[in-house]
Amino acid sequence: MLTTAIAMNLGFFLIASLYVVIGAKRAAGTAAFPGPRPVPAWFKVWLVVIWAVGMILPAAALVIDGVIGGNQPAAIAIGFYILMFVMQIATEIFVWKRWRSPIWVIVPCLYLTWRMFQCYWGLTIIDAQATPLTAFTLYALMVLWVINIGVHFTNIPMTLRWDYHPKSATFPALHRSIPVGAGHQDALDPGQGAKEA
To answer: Which of 12, 52, 107, 195 has the largest CB neighbor count within 10 A?
Structure first.
């Protein structure tokens, strides 16, 4: 069970990191990504919910069921969940702050879907009657991340500052065969200015 968990999570981390590196290389030389735009008040509340359910609740389950209760399956399920949660945050910060790459937006796309699998897999290895807090935590996490996938995906246009383009933009490069990459961005349409970001 432990060997399987190590292999699965290491394999995911390596594949996800490969996608991120390839994406960042393709976007190398483009404008620096300014980071997620200032978030509205409701999103700040949502972040509190994410941290409470996504990290504090699993940490409590790990301590109570995994450490104090000595339940190895619970410790493995929740321990690897927490590890990958931390790896996602570290990857996001690195890609955003160090590389300043727009590929930042795919990091949650990769990790959120993996986290759903982790919760499902965790439920298959634990004894829900022996570890009710861990079972409750895994179900709560599945609900949380399904909602957060929707929040993240629907917010991608704003995260990428799509509103920077004027509504009348025609994107001339769509009519020419220009590869995606450094030096191939569309200029704003002639005679049109950008809105303030």
So the answer is: 107
